[in-house]
Amino acid sequence: MKKLLVRGGSGSSQLLVGESIDNLIAYIDPRRTVIVTDTTIEGLYRQRFPDCPTITIGLGEKIKTLDTVAKIYDQLVELEADRSSFILGTGGGIVCDIAGFVASTYMRGLPFGFVATTLLAQVDASVGGKNGVNFGGYKNMVGVFNQPDFVICDMTVLQSLPVREILCGFAEIIKHGAIADERMLDFLDAHQDDALRLDKAIVEYLVYRSVEIKAKVVTQDEREKGERRKLNFGHTFGHAIEKLTGIPHGEAVGIGMVLAAKLSAKMGLLHDREAARLERIIAGYGLPVRPPVDLAAMLAAIRKDKKREGDLIHFVLLETLGRARVEELSFDELQAYMSSVATN
Ligand SMILES: O=C(O)C(=O)C[C@@H](O)[C@H](O)[C@H](O)COP(=O)(O)O
């Protein structure tokens, strides 16, 4: 097991890559813990959870709402959870986002930790202290920055994931390579088959390296005033596509990264050959690369993005593979560049 640390304003978070869920008891006091999980994880791992009260929520992005949050508050009241309680979010990104938000707001905040059970949650969603829910159909519109005490990433639980879910995790891994480490892209290229069959050593390296990149950025800029914006590479188009089509987050981010790389090339930053290479890597990991909706619809959805300030949007571009930069673009500029970018 390898440990990393995220230092944030609200405290530090220990990231435990390769730790087993069977050692959970070393990190919590079961008498004070309430587990928040979903029906799939409860079915698969209930026997391995410590004996604690458990709140089980449904599945899918549609339940990531304030209604679900309110239902969890009701159950916490029922369980007489108080300020000495501890919330353990056990599941994928949706469970972690909701559980972290509930823990951060119930009685003005309880301590919490995560067991991240999907590849996407291990490399991204559970790390960095962004906890929140969707509102009005728009992604993560209501939330807080608040670090979990710990995140456990147990590699063995990944074996039970559906293929489509695993591929979504690879989208965020590729993103970390694209913004911060070209050698990681080389590695992803060279070890594609082993990575896709979840070879333990290969995947553990990719999870560790992703978390290392993310932990460094978040420690520098927890509240996303500058450097952290780069972690949103591919997410401006990605969130728009996710809202418009309902396809899974990682798939939408894969398409969003292809579009952002093409935009970077159109703006004279990234070489066309590099944009094409990134697209090839994304496609090689079984992810879609063409937007299933037209540009006008995506731009309309982007107008509601959190990164918009007036008529400007902070857009993450690539200068080269492994190096990102954030530019303020007006919607007119974005439309002008994108209308000459091939999207089919
Ligand atoms: O942690 C971050 O910061 C990120 O932007 C990582 C993203 O991959 C992640 O999906 C994040 O939750 C998106 O945040 P949002 O603020 O754009 O909703």
UniProtKB/TrEMBL annotation:
Q: Which cofactor does it need?
A: Co(2+); Zn(2+); NAD(+)
Per UniProt, what is one GO molecular function of this protein? metal ion binding
Domain 3-dehydroquinate synthase C-terminal spans what residues?
169-307
Looking at the keywords, is Zinc present? yes
Q: Which HAMAP family match?
A: DHQ_synthase (MF_00110)
NCBIfam families per UniProt? aroB
- UniProt name for this protein: 3-dehydroquinate synthase
Query: What organism is listed for this UniProt entry?
Result: Desulfosarcina widdelii
The gene that this protein is the product of is aroB
